[in-house]
């Protein structure tokens, strides 16, 4: 098998990938907000990988431990010769814990960051010469389409990192329903879900002492300057992340430290001192709460694994 990556450009013409339009629309709202998908330019993707190495950020190491322990059981649920679709492939480190056990016939990495996607899939192709590797540059939060020629008789979508938490519960339900329609009949979803826990543990994970998460959040403003020519001073904003218990979610914001105006083309957006730009939600679930949500999207829970401290969970959802 050649180590070349088959690249599928699903970016062109995708309305959800118009950074400029979404920035203008989001900053025009009474309560300014942007989608967290725009964190992930090349620098943002590298910063997120650094976040995953911070001692406060339990999510990555805990999920990796769960996947390593459950790999053989996961492989038996998925079955041989499947198509493995990784959503938000990033550095594709976690999927390596599954590849040898699962031995899929094909791998499809899907990510919004083109350069990071190509880098990670090329490494996979080189390290697993028996694996047919495909890369789809796409915004899977808007639409997922398995490229022609990649389809398998059975597929499993791998969605790690509790990225499902970036959707509000109703949005997460709709996303899972769309995913079920996009995959072949009888396919499954292997998904990481962060669990509700002590506020101090949650808030520390999004406010690491090294300030990496703050840099990641502020990079959104840097990206506006680099790509849109926006007139904005990132130093006039600070990172804020807190747990909203009523909504069961971490919220991330950029807080204006002074009265200022952010300019994109002819559009001017005034910020009062203390006003925020809402950049991310990360919803937290109980096991039962997430299983109920998945059930409403048309799935049944086939298995769920967690760590001894009940910090994190991994669910295998079946659509048959």
TrEMBL record:
Give the source's domain of life in one word.
Answer: Bacteria
UniProt cross-references to Pfam families, sorted A to Z: Methyltransf_33
Give the EC class as a word: transferase
Keywords linked to the UniProt accession:
Methyltransferase, Transferase
What SUPFAM superfamilies does the database record attribute to this sequence? S-adenosyl-L-methionine-dependent methyltransferases
What biological processes does GO assign it? methylation
Domain named Histidine-specific methyltransferase SAM-dependent: residues: 19-318
Gene Ontology molecular function: any one: L-histidine N(alpha)-methyltransferase activity
Q: Does the keyword Methyltransferase apply?
A: yes
Q: Does the keyword Transferase apply?
A: yes
Q: Which Gene3D superfamilies match?
A: Vaccinia Virus protein VP39
For this protein, the Enzyme Commission number is 2.1.1.44
Q: Which NCBIfam families match?
A: egtD_ergothio
Any idea what this protein is called?
A: L-histidine N(Alpha)-methyltransferase
């Amino acid at each position: 098998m050649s180590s070349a990556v088959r690249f599928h450009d699903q970016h062109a013409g995708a309305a959800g990938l118009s950074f400029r339009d979404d920035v203008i629309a989001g900053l025009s709202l009474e309560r300014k907000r942007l989608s967290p998908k725009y964190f992930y330019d090349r620098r943002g993707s590298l910063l997120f990988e650094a976040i995953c190495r911070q001692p406060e950020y339990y999510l990555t190491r805990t999920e990796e431990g769960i996947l390593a322990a459950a790999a053989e059981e996961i492989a038996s649920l998925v079955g041989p010769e499947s198509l493995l679709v990784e959503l938000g492939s990033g550095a594709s480190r976690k999927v390596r814990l599954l590849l040898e056990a699962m031995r899929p016939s094909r791998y499809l990495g899907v990510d919004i960051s083109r350069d990071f996607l190509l880098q990670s899939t090329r490494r996979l192709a080189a390290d697993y010469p028996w694996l047919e590797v495909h890369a789809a540059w796409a915004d899977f939060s808007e639409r997922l389409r398995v490229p022609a020629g990649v389809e398998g008789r059975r597929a499993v979508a791998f969605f790690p990192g509790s990225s499902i938490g970036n959707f509000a519960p109703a949005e997460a339900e709709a996303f899972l329903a769309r995913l079920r329609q996009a995959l072949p009949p009888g396919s499954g979803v292997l998904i990481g879900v962060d669990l509700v826990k002590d506020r101090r543990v949650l808030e520390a994970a999004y406010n690491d002492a090294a300030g990496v998460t703050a840099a990641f959040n502020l990079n959104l403003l840097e990206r506006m300057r680099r790509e849109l020519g926006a007139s904005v001073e990132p130093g006039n904003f600070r990172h804020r992340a807190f747990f909203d218990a009523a909504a069961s979610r971490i919220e991330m914001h950029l807080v204006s430290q002074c009265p200022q105006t952010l300019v994109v083309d002819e559009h001017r957006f005034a910020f009062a001192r203390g006003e925020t730009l809402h950049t991310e939600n990360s919803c937290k679930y109980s096991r039962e709460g997430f299983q109920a949500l998945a059930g409403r999207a048309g799935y049944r829970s086939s298995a769920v694994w967690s760590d001894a401290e009940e910090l994190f969970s991994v669910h295998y959802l079946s659509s048959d």
